[in-house]
Amino acid sequence: MYVTAYLSKEIKPGKINYSPEHLLQMVQDMKLTHLPIFDGLDFVGNIAEEDLAELTFGDEDQDLLKDYTESFFLTEDHTLLDAIQLMYMNHTNVLPVITKENRYVGCVTQQTILEEMAKFPFISELAVSMVVSIASKDLSMSVITNIIESNNGKIFGLMLMDNTEDQSNVLVRFSSSNLLSIGETFERYGYQVVQKFYNDEKQELLQTRYAQLLKYMNT
Question: Which intervals hold domain CBS (predicted)?
Answer without folding.
Answer: 64-125
